[in-house]
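Lab notebook, bench 4. Continuing the backlog of folding jobs that were queued last week. Each job is logged with the same field layout so the records can be merged later without manual cleanup. Today's entry covers Phenylacetate-coenzyme A ligase, a 432-residue chain. Filled in by technician R.K.

JOB TYPE: sequence-to-structure
TARGET: Phenylacetate-coenzyme A ligase
LENGTH: 432
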Amino acid sequence: MEFFDIAETWNRDEIRQAQLVRLRNTVEQAMRSSFYGATLRKAGITPDSIRSLDDLRRIPFTTKDDLRNQYPDGLNCVPRTEMVRMHASSGTTGSPTVVYHTQSDLNAWADLMARCLHMVGVRRDDVFQNMTGYGLFTGGLGLHYGAERLGCLTIPAGPGNTKRQVKLMRDFRTSVVHIIPSYALYLAAAVEEGGEDPHALPPRIAVIGAEPHTEEARRRIEEMLGLKAFNSYGLSEMNGPGVAFECTEQNGMHVWEDAYIAEIIDPATGEPVPDGEVGELVMTTLCRRGMPVLRYRTRDLTRFLPGECPCGRVHRRLDRMVGRADDMLIIKGVNIYPMQIEQVLMAFPEVGQNYLIVLEREEFIDQIKVKVELRDEAFVEDMRVLQGLQKAIARRLKDEILVTPRVELVQNNSLPKAEGKAQRVLDLREKP
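JOB STATUS: finished
OUTPUT FIELD FOLLOWS
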């Protein structure tokens, strides 16, 4: 078996020893930030106090609110002049979460991404077509640099424009694609509806992720496009993609434990759960200098898969994500919180107190619709006025959540009301 780097061959003792050394170094580096300096001193944590990996549990959790509260640079551990990249979550009404990288951080991330791609069979002579978003979103750039690190011809196609995507595949003989699952299904269906065979497209490997999907959806992608599709997991706070990745066995995603420590806890108590039991994933960076993050509560629900992987790697495996421990939505690869939508809606004086976010799936693509009650005086008969308001709300929402929703204006008191907690999200998507 061919490995990309030596860390893939480490046994459990070698992994744990590397984690312990790197955890101490990470704690020492983290204490240079104003946030962790105060947090760790209050908890009595110093690098010397980390004598075993069990001491990790003495470190307080970090939450998304902590990151927001430290906006824009309260977690930075080096001067801004040493930072060369930042990524941020969506959001203009509240503080986004921002992650900074030094050049060495980006180099390490690129190496991890190259390792992931190499593990599933991507090689220097492949042509890699990146069909996900760039910009502040981490998914596009992460895979892009990993493919370039391997030496692949890399096409930064970005999302959408199916005809162009297909033309690029054919003209440049694309052999590997990075694509979100719902768009992969849509693309296959679109090619088929155009009277052509999706199996005739050149890609042999698809890297899929950025949105929840089932095993059935993965198999359908493979069958419709005639390729092998590999699941990936990442989050901006841990760089982005490359945290965990499937091998060719397609039986769980290997967490790169030389770069991260993964824990799974009971989201209610914060205590660890046994292997094989679903809980909340908690992650710690081990190789990031500019902005290390300790014990970050991802809110993603998953489990460690017991047993050894036939591929020979002993880095632990995560099952696919089965849900969230909070109310975050993932639409077209973008993380969206209902509160973001509410903040936009409530800024319009014409909008009433009630709204409903409706999630639908059309031709394999997840869609988001926002039904908005208007105040009685705003629900006028002039359609031009209503259409103008509708477009204005849609534009403001797109600016906030980075996805264009469908906005439906409805009369006051026409949406269902609950005696208890208001139902803000209605998910009508059929599970693939």
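OBSERVATION: Residues 12-30 form the longest helix (19 residues).
SIGNED: R.K.
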